[in-house]
C-alpha cells in the first residue's frame, strides 16, 4: 500500500523490519521503486533478492525489465527478458517500448514480429510504439502492415495509435494518407495536431501548416512547446520573417510558455537566412538560456549558406569546445573555407580533426522494396546486384548529361583532381538507392522513396530534381534535416535545406 501510494521510504522501512519476506513483498517494493522513478534501487533490490535466496517470478522480472531500460542497460534487459517463462502482453510491450526509447527501432520491429508469432495479442500501447519505430525508420510498408493490424484489433481509432499513424505517414512523406487518418480521428488532442502541423512543415507544405495551426486555435486548444517548433520551422522554410516574429513573441506573451532552445534555434535560422545576421547574433547573446550545441550548429549552418566566415568561425569554435568529437562542425567549417578556395585553412581544420582523432560519421541511404530494406553507402559494392545498379546509374547520368547537367564538383570538398571528384560524387549513397529503386520498379508511377541519415549534398539534390523531370516520376528523399519532394524538376524545399 505504501509503495503504491508513493510513500516508498515508509514501504522500505516496513520491509526491512519484516522477518517473513516473500516474493510478493519483494515485488511490491521493486514495483514501488520503479513507479517512484528510482530504477537503480530496483536493480539493486533485484540482486539483493536473488542473493537472499528468493526466486524471482514473472512479475519481478517484468518490473526489473523496465528498470534496466530506464538506466539504459539494454543488454541486461535482454538477459532478464529471456528469463521470463510465460511472457505476457506486458513484458513483450515493456521490451518493445524499451527498445524504442533506446533508439533500437529495428530490434523493436523484430520483437513485435516474434510477439505476434507467439500468439500474444498486442494492445494500443504496443501498436503505437511499433508505429513510432516505423516512423523513425521511414519504413512505410511495415507501417502500413501495422496500420492494418491496428484496424483488425480495433485500436486504430485510439488516440495514441492514430496520432502515431499521422506521424508515421508524415515521416514517410505520404502527407495525403496522414491527412486521411487525421481527418477521420473521432477526437484529437494537441499531440495529434502537432503531428499533422509538423508533418506539413517537414514536407514543405508550410502554408498548410500555418493554416492548420490557426484551426487548432479555433478549437480552443492550447498550443504547446512542440506546436511552436513546428509553426516556427514552417515560417522558417517559407521565409516568413514577420509572421515568425509574431509567433515567437506569442509563445511567452500570449501562452505564458518559456521559449526553449529549439524555438530560439528556429528564430536564429529564420533571421540569419533572411539576411538579419546581426539580429540573429543578438538573439544568441541575449537569450535566457546558455547557448547549446543546437544553437551554435544552427548559426554555423546559416553562416555556411550565407558565406559569413567570421561568424561561422566563431560558432564552429564554440562547437569544437562543446562537442570535440563531432565531425559535423569541422567538415562544415572546412567546406566554408573550400568554397572560397582557402586551402591552407582547410588543411588546418583537417589536421585539427586528425589530432583530436575525430571520426567522420558514416553516411548511408536506404530504400524499402517489397517490405525489405536495402542500405547503401557511397561507392557501395556490397549489394548483390551492384553491377546492375552501377549500369543503371551510368545510364541515368548519361541521360542527364545529354540534357546538359554537369556534376557540381565544388561540393566535393578536397582540392583533388577533377576526375576523382567526379567519380566519388556520382556514387553517393542516395544515387545508388535511386538506381536500385528504378531497377526494381521501372514502370510504376508511384514516387520513389529514399531515406538518408545525413543532409543531402547539393549535387545529389540537383541530380534528383533533374531525374524527376527526365523520367517523369516523383522522388521523395528524406534526409536528416527535412523532406524533399522532387516533382517535374523542382523540389518542395525550394532549394532551402
Ligand atoms: Zn551527394
Ligand atoms: Zn530539396
From TrEMBL:
InterPro entries: DYW_dom, E_motif, PPR_At4g14850-like_plant, PPR_rpt, TPR-like_helical_dom_sf. Gene3D superfamilies: Tetratricopeptide repeat domain. PPR repeats lie at residues 22-56, 88-122, 189-223. GO terms for molecular function: RNA binding; zinc ion binding. PROSITE patterns: PPR. The keyword DNA damage does not apply. Keywords: Repeat. One of its GO terms (biological process) is RNA modification. It comes from Gossypium aridum. The lineage of its organism: Eukaryota, Viridiplantae, Streptophyta, Embryophyta, Tracheophyta. Belongs to the PPR family. PCMP-H subfamily. Residues 404-497 form the DYW domain. This is DYW domain-containing protein. SUPFAM superfamilies: TPR-like.
Amino acid at each position: 500500500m505504501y509503495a503504491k501510494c508513493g510513500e516508498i521510504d515508509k514501504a522500505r522501512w516496513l520491509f526491512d523490519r519484516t522477518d517473513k519476506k516473500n516474493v510478493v513483498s519483494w515485488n511490491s517494493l521493486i514495483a514501488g521503486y520503479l513507479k517512484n522513478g528510482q530504477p537503480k534501487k530496483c536493480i539493486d533490490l533485484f540482486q539483493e533478492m536473488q542473493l537472499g535466496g528468493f526466486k524471482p517470478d514473472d512479475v519481478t522480472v517484468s518490473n526489473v525489465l523496465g528498470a534496466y531500460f530506464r538506466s539504459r542497460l539494454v543488454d541486461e534487459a535482454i538477459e532478464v527478458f529471456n528469463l521470463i517463462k510465460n511472457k505476457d502482453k506486458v513484458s513483450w510491450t515493456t521490451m518493445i517500448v524499451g527498445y524504442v526509447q533506446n533508439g533500437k527501432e529495428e530490434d523493436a520491429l523484430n520483437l513485435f514480429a516474434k510477439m505476434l508469432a507467439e500468439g500474444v495479442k498486442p494492445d494500443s500501447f504496443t501498436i503505437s510504439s511499433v508505429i513510432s519505430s516505423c516512423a523513425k525508420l521511414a519504413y512505410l510498408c511495415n507501417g502500413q502492415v501495422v496500420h492494418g493490424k491496428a484496424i483488425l484489433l480495433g485500436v486504430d481509432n485510439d488516440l495514441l495509435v492514430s496520432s502515431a499513424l499521422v506521424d508515421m505517414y508524415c515521416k514517410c512523406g505520404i502527407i495525403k494518407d496522414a491527412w486521411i487518418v487525421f481527418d477521420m480521428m473521432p477526437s484529437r488532442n494537441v499531440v495529434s495536431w502537432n503531428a499533422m502541423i509538423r508533418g506539413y512543415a517537414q514536407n514543405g507544405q508550410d502554408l498548410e501548416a500555418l493554416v492548420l495551426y490557426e484551426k487548432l486555435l479555433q478549437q480552443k486548444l492550447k498550443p504547446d512547446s512542440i506546436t511552436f517548433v513546428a509553426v516556427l520551422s514552417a515560417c522558417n522554410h517559407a521565409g516568413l520573417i514577420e509572421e515568425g516574429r509574431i509567433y515567437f513573441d506569442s509563445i511567452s506573451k500570449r501562452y505564458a510558455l518559456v521559449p526553449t532552445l529549439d524555438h530560439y534555434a528556429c528564430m536564429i535560422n529564420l533571421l540569419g537566412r533572411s539576411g538579419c545576421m546581426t539580429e540573429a547574433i543578438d538573439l544568441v547573446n541575449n537569450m535566457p538560456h546558455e547557448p547549446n550545441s543546437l544553437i551554435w550548429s544552427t548559426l554555423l549552418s546559416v553562416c555556411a549558406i550565407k558565406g559569413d566566415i567570421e561568424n561561422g568561425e566563431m560558432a564552429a569554435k564554440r562547437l569544437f569546445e562543446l562537442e570535440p568529437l563531432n565531425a559535423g562542425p569541422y567538415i562544415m567549417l572546412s567546406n566554408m573555407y573550400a568554397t572560397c578556395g582557402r586551402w591552407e585553412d582547410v588543411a588546418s581544420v583537417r589536421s585539427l580533426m586528425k589530432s583530436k582523432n575525430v571520426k567522420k560519421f558514416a553516411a548511408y541511404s536506404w530504400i524499402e522494396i517489397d517490405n525489405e530494406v536495402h542500405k547503401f553507402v557511397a561507392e557501395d559494392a556490397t549489394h548483390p546486384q551492384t553491377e546492375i545498379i552501377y549500369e543503371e546509374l551510368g545510364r541515368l547520368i548519361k541521360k542527364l548529361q545529354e540534357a546538359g547537367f554537369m556534376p557540381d564538383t565544388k561540393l566535393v570538398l578536397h582540392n583533388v583532381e577533377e576526375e576523382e571528384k567526379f567519380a566519388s560524387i556520382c556514387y553517393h549513397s542516395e544515387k545508388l538507392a535511386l538506381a536500385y529503386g528504378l531497377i526494381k520498379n521501372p514502370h510504376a508511377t508511384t514516387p520513389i522513396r529514399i531515406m538518408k541519415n545525413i543532409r543531402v549534398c547539393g549535387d545529389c539534390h540537383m541530380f534528383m530534381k533533374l531525374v524527376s523531370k527526365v523520367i517523369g516520376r516523383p522522388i521523395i528523399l528524406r534526409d536528416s534535416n527535412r523532406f524533399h519532394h522532387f516533382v517535374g524538376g523542382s523540389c518542395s524545399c525550394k532549394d532551402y535545406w
